[in-house]
Amino acid sequence: VSPGNLQLIRNFFSVPSTVNKHKPWIETSYHGVITENTDVVLLDPPLVALDKDAPVPYAGRTHGGEICAFNIQGLESPFEAVVLNGTSGEGQLRARGLVDCESQKEYTFIIQAHDCGSGPGGAEGKKSHKAAVHIQVNDVNEFAPVFRESEYRAAVTEGKIYDNILQVEATDQDCSPQYSQICNYQITSARTPFAIDRNGNIRNTEKLSYDRQQQYEIQVTAWDCGQKRALRSVSVRIDVKPVCKPGWQGWNKRVDYEPGTGSKQLFPKMHLETCGGPLSSARTTVELQTGHIGKGCDRETYSEKSLQKLCGASSGSTDLLPAPSAATNWTASLVTDSGRDSELIFTFDGRQAAKIPDWVVPQNLTDHFTIATWMKHGPSHGLRAEKETLLCNSDKTEMNRHHYSLYVHNCRLVFLLRRDFTQVDTFRPAEFHWKLEQICDKEWHYYVINVEFPVVTLYVDGVTYDPYLVTDDWPIHPSQIDVQLTVGACWQGGEVKKPRFTQYFRGSLAGLTIRPGKIESQKVISCLQACKEGLDINSLESLDKSIKFHFNPAQSILVMEGEDLENMNAAVRKVSYINSRQFPTPGARRLRISTSVQCFGEDTCITIPDIDAVVMVLQPSEPRITISGAERLTRPESDFGAAGGIALFQDLHIISTVTRISGEPERKREDPEVLEEIIHNLDYCDILVLGEELGPEEESLQVRRGALLGKHLDATNSTSGMSVYGVDSMSSYEQVIRQVRYYHRRPAHLTERRFRLTCSELNGRYTSNELNLEVSVLHGSEPGEHVGHAIAPPQYMQVRRPSVVHDLYAGHSSAVPSAATVVIVMCIAALVVVVVLGIYRIHLTHQQEIRLEETAKEAGTSWDDSALTITVNPMEEAGSDEEDEDEEDEEEDDEITSAESDYSEEEVDIQLPKVERQSRKGQNWDKARISY
Predict the structure, then answer these.
(1) CA–CA gap between residue 318 and residue 341 (Å, rounded)
(2) CB atoms < 10 A from the CB of 327, how many?
(3) Where in the chain is the domain with CATH 2.60.120.200?
(4) How would you class 463 by CB atoms within 10 Å of its CB: exposed for 0-12, middle for 13-18, buried for 19 or more?
(5) Strand extents, DSSP E, 545-605
(6) Where are the bilayer-spanning segments (predicted)?
(7) Fewer CB atoms inside 10 A, N or C side of the chain?
(8) Quick one: CA dihedral 195, 201, 204, 209, positive or negative?
């Protein structure tokens, strides 16, 4: 209100009077605005109080027309009203302190105006009516946006475009809509396939790929409507999941296995994803695929003969597919497979076959015999598959009758057995048929056919199978025609212009044996194909009872069935790999898991794809086989010609060590490798003749058969040496080789022989060092060589006091006998010595034969002459040296003390030296210790 208008209003209401008759007048309501953090309230209309008791101009006393105060009712109100001009009635509303919009946005209270008052007797001033005041607090943008979550996460499926993956949200503590609302969001990360709108919704701008990137992390910020930015961005993580495909998840393609650690779980975190499909049952098969011949389920193992000894197989088995050699040349033309056991596996491509010599197997088998072989075979080629013959016994000439044969036809195994006419002429069982998946699965399997006519039993990998078809036939008429046994085809010798092979086999065979007269037990058959490595179930007792499981005999296939998915997952997690071999072959073993499921209702059931994994067997700690013993051996020639010869390796020792890494940190710096002695088996030891081969008519290497009794060992020898073979302990090999003896019929023609001994484990996978032995002969006509080797003491050693020597020789004559007398005496003495030596040699040879016969009766007894002591009589003639040598060999175990000379009192006793022979150096003569 302008001052002019204000004065007109006052004149209108004013009544000139000196008495306070009227109340002040104010507006009925006021509206005000105050900005937070300030103290002045802007009111609309302005705060003005009017009073009709107009004051007298220029009066010197207070008049009732003046306004003295504005009172606010409400103790909690943070405002106060002040009078700016009492005469004009102007006032102002102020805040007593700082006002915070975030605490309270609006205030409402009552205000009254008071005049100064003037009346008779000093009456009080009058109050105006009550007016309502409404005040709004204006906001200041003092807060920045803050996100509700510290981190946001979401998951999407690959290959889809989403309108909204997730929404981020920020808030602002400012009180006004302008400053408290979030007007914009922004992704600050560069080059991301995502976008965000004003409401915080995030979407992907392109299809995501699980293979390309499995997780994204982006940063998001926000602005309020006052353009204040959030102080801290928020992280948003988006996981990309593959398109849900039913199958096994959480498994590793490779599982490392360290030898000697026992059982190891293969899939500890694996589970079956069904994509929400309800399942009624599931069947899972875990298969360990070795992909090679199954002897021990390892690629490097013992020979077939060694395994047969280990498993206690019956003797008399004949190997029809031996390694090619001079004696077994019928396999020389066959193709052998590559690899370490190439001498064991033969591959037939439909063009190779072998004739078995007539002397190998009897032409007519008895009612009891066994045929066994390892076979790998695939489906036959062509629509009309021909017979593929493994083994066939047919007429050699004139006719083509098959007496017995084993062949494959259309993935069926057939065994034919035609018997000769006996007392009756009736139909008898002749063909036995088996239809098995193993015959054409291109994997190795062990087949054994036990014939107890008329019953024929087939074992495949240790499991018995009965024939699904048995056909009868007439017996074969007896004839004088010889038969021919062949492998890989059947011999067609008659009714054709040119005899030839027919019905060739296509596949691989190994260890094809036939045992006439005996059948093999199921225990031995299972042992021959048993695995040292396979599948296992860890903590079998904790397996849920609702899960049914089954192992094949080799424990290479495990089948599990169940109705509950979680129980099936738990069972699969317990599947383990175990390898009990001491030195397993390092390398990969393939695993395959196949699963089939049944669904409820008639809905299409899901398909679970097979998975392939690998068990990687790590390199084991390789053993170091060390053989030690004497490297030189010297014996009199009489020992070589004796019935038993000489023992070559009487002090042999075989040990094996592995290198371990020390676990102690302080020791690791100085000596990180620690040798540890271990015990394991050997499978052969060879004694090779170095230089010229043995003369078969004069010399040989021999070992008594009794030394092999009770052991899994056998021995063969030839002119080039001897081989002791079989899977047995190192101590057993020691005992046998210590009894290997070298014999020479004419030792006088021999000067020396050299031999080399080596031992091996796992068909040469681990080989020992070479122990070279040089054998020398002491001939009777070479006493000087013997004395030099033994370092014998002087023959005429006498020690006397000087006075005694003078007395002894004081009375001796210096006369020398004539030359003729000396010659005659020496000739007579030589003749006597020759006669005595001849008689003594005959006696000595007889005594040695008796002694060797007694030694042969005691198995494993070795000679020990380490305690031998030789006493030399200084008074004996030089010609008795050879006689002393023979007596030393005859009295090996006796200890003879030094002799004392029995002279007169003037002579001194002579302490003669002891000559000791140590056994650790091959019974060589050692240097004598001489004491006086």
Answers:
(1) 19
(2) 6
(3) 304-529
(4) middle
(5) 548-551, 557-562, 575-579, 587-599
(6) 819-842
(7) C
(8) positive
CB 737 within 8 A of CB 685: yes
Quote the tokens at residue 226. Answer: 């006052």
Which tokens hold the place of 8? 């007109």
Furthest-apart CA atoms within the chain: distance in Å: 203
Output the CATH code of domain 623-659+675-778.
2.60.40
Strand partners, 67: 115
State whether residue 666 is helix, strand or coil: helix
**Helix (H) or strand (E) segment spanning residue 415:** strand 412-417
Which of 583, 769, 582, 776 has the alpha carbon at shortest distance from 685?
A: 769
Q: How many CB atoms are located within 10 Å of the residue 322 CB?
A: 20
Q: What is the pTM of this model?
A: 0.53
> Which fold does the domain 247-287+535-617 belong to in CATH?
Immunoglobulin-like (2.60.40)
Those residues whose C-beta lies under 8 Å from the C-beta of residue 261, and which sit 6 or more positions away, are: none
304 neighbors 344 (Cβ within 8 angstroms): yes
pLDDT at 807: 35
Distance between start and end Cα atoms, the chain: 153
Identify whether the C-beta of residue 230 lies closer than 8 Å to the C-beta of residue 146.
Answer: yes
Backbone angles phi, psi at 73, to 5 degrees: -95, 125
Rounded CA-CA distance 834/390 in Å is 71
CATH 2.60.40.60 intervals, the chain: 25-138, 146-241
The Cα 652–Cα 175 span in angstroms is: 101
The fold adopted by the segment(s) 25-138 is Immunoglobulin-like (2.60.40)
Q: Residue 699 burial by CB count (10 A; 0-12/13-18/19+): exposed, middle or buried? A: buried
Going by CATH, does the domain composed of 146-241 fall within 2.60.40.60?
yes
Torsion of CA 7, 10, 15, 17, to 10 degrees: -80
Q: Are 317 and 514 in contact (CB under 8 A)?
A: yes
Residue type, 58: Y
The overall average pLDDT reported for the chain is 77
Phi/psi zone of residue 25: left (φ > 0), alpha (ψ -120 to 50 degrees), beta?
Answer: beta
Answer yes or no: are the C-beta atoms of 140 and 36 closer than 8 Å. Answer: yes
Half-sphere exposure of 475 toward its Cβ, with a 13 Å CA cutoff?
13
Q: What angle do CA 199, 200, 202 make, to 5 degrees?
A: 125
Where do the H-state alpha helices sit in 684-801?
730-737, 783-790
Contact 179, 141 (CB under 8 A): yes
Distance CA 908, CA 180 (A): 131
**Cα–Cα distance between 582 and 574 in angstroms, integer?**
24
Residues 694/773, Cβ–Cβ less than 8 Å: no
Residue type, 589: R
Sign of CA dihedral 300, 304, 310, 311: positive
Q: Which residues pair with 585 in a beta bridge?
A: none
Instruction: Indicate the SS3 state at residue 101.
Output: coil
Tokens of 472: 């009868």
Give the residue ranges of the chain where pLDDT is below 70: 1-19, 54-64, 75, 118-124, 290-301, 303-304, 338-343, 364, 382-384, 420-425, 601-604, 660-674, 780-823, 825, 840-932
3-state secondary structure (DSSP) of residue 459 = strand
> What is the four-CA torsion angle of 352, 358, 363, 367, rounded to 10 degrees?
-80
Confidence (pLDDT) at 667: 45
**Single-letter amino acid, residue 643:** A
Place of tokens 């499981």: 549
Burial class of 420 by CB neighbour count within 10 A (0 to 12, 13 to 18, 19+): exposed
Closest C-alpha among 262, 161, 154 to residue 209 = 161
Residue 112: what are its φ and ψ, rounded to 5°? Answer: -135, 150
Q: Is 137 left (phi over 0), alpha (psi -120 to 50) or beta?
A: beta
pLDDT reported for residue 804: 31
Looking at the DSSP assignment, which residues form a beta bridge with residue 388? 408
The tokens describing 184, both together, are 């914009």
